[in-house]
Structures are given as C-alpha cells and as structure tokens.
Amino acid sequence: MKNTAFIAVFLFCACKYQQPSSCNTKYTIDIRSINASMAYTTLYHVNDDSISVEFINEVEGGRDSILLKRPLIQAERTSLCNYLSTFDIDTLKTDYINQRVDDGDQKRITLQIGNKNKTVNISNFYQKEMIGLYDVINNVINDDRYKIKYRK
Hints:
Order of helices and strands: HEEEEHEEEH
Number of strands: 7
Distance between the termini: 60 Å
C-alpha cells in the first residue's frame, strides 16, 4: 500500500512537470575586434543558427581567412538564446571610450536581439555588461585560439 501511494504521488508530480519552453528569441551578433597597430580585425558573427570567426587582413594585398565556421548545436543555441533574452541592450550607451589611450583594445559590437538593434563602440574601456556576452560566445567557440580577448 505504501509503495502504491508513493508511485501515485510520483506519477502525479511527473505529469504536472512541464519541459521549459524553448527560447524563441532571434538574434544576430557581430563583434569586430580591431587591432589597428597590426592591421587586422577579427570578426565574430553569431546568429541563431551558426557561428563564424573571420580574420580580416587590412594590409593592402593581404588575404582574409575564415578561422571557424560551423552550425550551432541545440545546447549552444539554447545557452545563447537564454542569455540574450535577458540581455537588455537598451541600457547600453553607444560609446565607451577611454580618451587617454590612442591605440589598444577596440571593439565594435552590433546587436540585433528580437526587434531591438544597437551598435556599441568600446575603446580601451572595461565595459562590464559585455563580459557576459563575451563569455557565452567564448564558451560556444571553445578554442582558445579564436576566443574574444578582453581584460577584466
């Protein structure tokens, strides 16, 4: 009798459990990590289907190359989508620039999340709201050679 009651309670709870709904936020992220002194840019492009990392050679006659290009697996899509659905781009300013430094870390981030668009320029500035975005993308990249570089 005790086992029957336990099984009944277990089945009742199991039937009430619902899988979390899948994330349906559409997004496109472009991050240009500009290295002006070395004359190249690394372009990170992520959308709800794929990820790519491209080396753009800005030397005349230089060759561009695709470093990474692949579709996202479901777990990566879910991770990115869940993060981006909580990422409020309306709170971001357009520019975060340290005027005291002429060269160094330069990033231009273009975000399209749902029906919102934002372009953010970061120049030698620690912008803490972007760290989570960089981390979630770096987890998907999973190759130290191609990860987004930033200093905390």
